[in-house]
Amino acid sequence: QVQFVESGGGLVQTGGSLRLSCVASGFSLSNYDMGWYRRAPDKERELVAAITATGGDRKYADPVKGRFTISRDNAKNTVYLQMASLKPEDTAVYYCKRIWFATLAQFGSWGQGTQVTVFS
Length: 120
Known about the structure:
Elements: E1 3-7, E2 10-13, E3 18-25, E4 33-39, E5 46-51, E6 58-60, E7 68-73, E8 78-83, E9 92-100, E10 105-107, E11 114-119
Parallel strand pairs: 2-11
Antiparallel strand pairs: 1-3, 3-8, 4-5, 4-9, 5-6, 7-8, 9-10, 9-11
């Protein structure tokens, strides 16, 4: 059974940093492009970062460019999202998911996500 477990969220002050992890089970992460999404209160879920299966290419949403970094360790079956210079508008539940990097189409099911709350 394919499953993702996201972790690393928490409560952080404006300007702080967090590192999110997404551990996959039930399949080899190395075969798939991956994305990090977030859903803020009363907003649609949005893609914030994407990475190819090999880690050779990345994309970022404009609001997080220069502040967030997506990376992966295929040996650990894990994808990471390093978040820096956090702002209150980054407050959201963050999820990882398999994607098709070329089109940013997503597929598969969602995990439970990890809550990030940024206070000023």
